[in-house]
TrEMBL record:
One of its GO terms (cellular component) is spliceosomal complex. Residues 128-296 form the JmjC domain. It is found in: Nucleus. It catalyses: Thiol-dependent hydrolysis of ester, thioester, amide, peptide and isopeptide bonds formed by the C-terminal Gly of ubiquitin (a 76-residue protein attached to proteins as an intracellular targeting signal). It comes from Callosobruchus maculatus. PROSITE patterns: JMJC, USP_3, ZF_UBP. SMART domains: JmjC (SM00558), ZnF_UBP (SM00290). Residues 558-888 form the USP domain. This is Ubiquitin carboxyl-terminal hydrolase 39. GO terms for molecular function: cysteine-type deubiquitinase activity; zinc ion binding. Its main location: nucleus. Its EC number is 3.4.19.12.
Amino acid sequence: MCENNKWDASQIRKYDMDLQPIPRLHYKDPKVDELMKTNQPVLLTESNIAKPAVEKWTLEYLEENLGKCGHTVYVSKTHKFKYYDRKKILSKANPKGVEFTNDTKSVEMKVCDFMKKVKNWKQGDDRLYLQQSLNSTFGPAIVEDFMGFDWRYVTDKKARHGWGELSANLLFIAMEGNCTPCHYDEQQNLFAQIKGFKRCILFPPDQFECLYPHPVYHPHDRQSMVDFDNPDYTKFPKFKNVKGFETVVGPGDVLYIPIYWWHHIESLLTGGPTVTVNFWYKGGPSCLEYPLKDHQKVSIMRNVEKMLLEVLQDPKEVGPLLRTILMGRYVDVQSFEIMEQQVSSTKFPFNNQPKILTSIHTCFTVYFFKVLKQNYSNFPLIMNEPPSKKIKTEEGTLRESKPLTLPVTHNASGTSNENGININDIKPQSQAKIHRLCPYLDTINRQYLDFDFEKLCSVSLTRINVYACLVCGKYFQGRGTNTHAYTHSVAEGHHVFLNLHTLKFYCLPDNYEIIDSSLDDIKYVLNPTFTPEHIKNLDSSTKLSRAIDGSLYTPGIVGLNNIKANDYCNVVLQALSHVTPLRNYFLREENYLNIKRPPGDSSYLLVQRFGELMRKLWNPRNFKAHVSPHEMLQAVVLWSKKRFQFTQQGDPIDFLSWFLNALHRALNGTKKQNSSIIYKSFLGSMKIYTRKIPPTDLNDKEKKTLMATEEYQEVATESPFLYLTCDLPPPPLFKDEFRENIIPQVNLYQLLTKFNGQSEKEYKTYKENFMKRFEITQLPPYLILYIKRFTKNTFFVEKNPTIVNFPVKNVDFAEFLTPEAKANHENTVYDLIANIVHDGEPSKGTYRVHILQKSTGQWYEMQDLHVTDILPQMITLTEAYIQIYELRK
């Protein structure tokens, strides 16, 4: 038995193979990255990657928390669980005569039924293997554990080694002795063992021919045809020479299985069920390198096989025909007899006569490419070149044999195929030469450069491999010979391009990288960075910056473009950009770059876009004195599910409330005060006292009786808040003696008496009425006041024009706190830093914001692109709507 993290050789099956141990390294060992970089397997020990699962996930815990939904369970009559592709069973590509025996089937089963069958299993019963993708159907405890994985570590490996996106996390629960036969995956795999032990046998891609994979059209594609328990050396003679690696993974271990590496996984023969979680990452869009890597050779080989199958429609023709093409290309043409013997048993799409064999490879190549051109874009890919040799032609002259050029299949997006080979940049980026001198740098036009808009190719609208033309400012995809950037450079004579993702400069169509320090200003405009020292001095610096057109601007006091009707968003974003801790947090990308979110959750985009906007607003080296919030608003539309749009007017308070809560959730905030920068800055708390009002049609005696019941007693609840709602008094109904409307005024302190714990206000519902009073118990560092100006009646929205008289400094909230609350506050004096104003009618009005520049004490009025200074005395005369106050230190 496996006890105390131990196992012995009696628990594993015996195989006659040459197997070497897989390196075992501490997961923080620098050598781990060296091995991963070269696609070599490595076992990570003492890992915290799945620590919550290792500590908690017993079978009892999983049974209790996995949820009551059905899970995918595979059933097999033997210990082998061979996956199969259902589409290939049902497709026309699987003709009669293809051998396929299905010993494994998939069923839906509740976890309680699965656990019961596992516990009661006896020899002769069907074996079970639960394989389920981790998703929201699992219980909240499992989801919480999953969120507690060390995502920063795995994300770092993904970025460091150029892996693609996380495609899935699978949970495996296997019975002892279960085996997944030898196969390879077209993805990177981090194999995290949670409970029990598994033996893992791995083979590198160069062992492809020794492992005899099924053809691509077979339902068992990507699996070896060799039975490891009883290998048939007569049928598979090269299997005798197979060489691989092996290890045993235990709880806390993580095995890195590189892309296209064969792996044979089996639970130990004894020791009970095993639990595993894997992290599947798509192959990154890597470019070809010469000589080709082993996994790239396998990828190309399988793609060619797939294309031949699609062209010929008959799987039986694929192998012989591919051999014929290659023989006709590389073998001395005089060896016609040998070729004829090899293809004599194959029906060919040409007349099978000896004379046609002299040029059969040429004829078929023409036919082959003609068909492919109708179905695939013409992306040439050079296969690994065999040794060059002279061959004799019919004329008796000698010429040099050249490698065969074949296209590679790709997906509909035109980016990279399922094996991770980049087809946009056929000329590998790693092969681009580096030049420190470029004769075209003087053609760069910085006035045309605008990096505020979405990074999309202006032709194909793809987001992958996008380059900016530094001459005209347009975006194009790729830089290979068949890409839009290449075509643009040739057609327009524009030569200097910037990769918007890697921040590298290239000259096209020559395709060399440009290294020149004079381009650093362009790179900084695209991705501004701030040091801690720079951030510290932002509120004390009075230095002005100059845009490329010569205009002066103050960093942080720049206009935002109004795309159509997004002024209600602009004023909120401008106001929040002057909340110091929030600004400082988002100016440093490191603070939120590795925030862990569940797979498929795109809320990180909201955080990323807000950080980019914040850095651009405070960039002292901008090319222009304004910024477009286009990408930020795109993220808002996406994440709010079109609740907020920039094509129609909205309410700033609705947007502010949603935006603060969305950022808090995206930053993995909880209900605790310091769980995110949002709550640290804006979260306060109050007590709400509520009592029910008896119906008015009752007499005094009945009312007195009701008031004595528990239902009508006052109830106190503690409630957090991100902003305080101040209710304006109703405007007067009558006009003055000049028959003009009277514009009433009210003092801010009068509005704030609502929160002194003594003032009561009636709140009506459809059935019952309540009296409520509010008592502030904790003031936040930044206090947001919402002055409620709009009310809805049965027919339309009304605006209250009452002017609120407020000071811009020294607003003391002490008089609104109880003695107990005062004791918890060292200071209660606030200063105004932002004031959002509404002008005009309720449905047709506009918004503007007043911002305080702390370094000079100067106030500025900002309305979209218009920025002007303003006297503080003028601010108090406006129809204030939302205000942000800062606690004085």
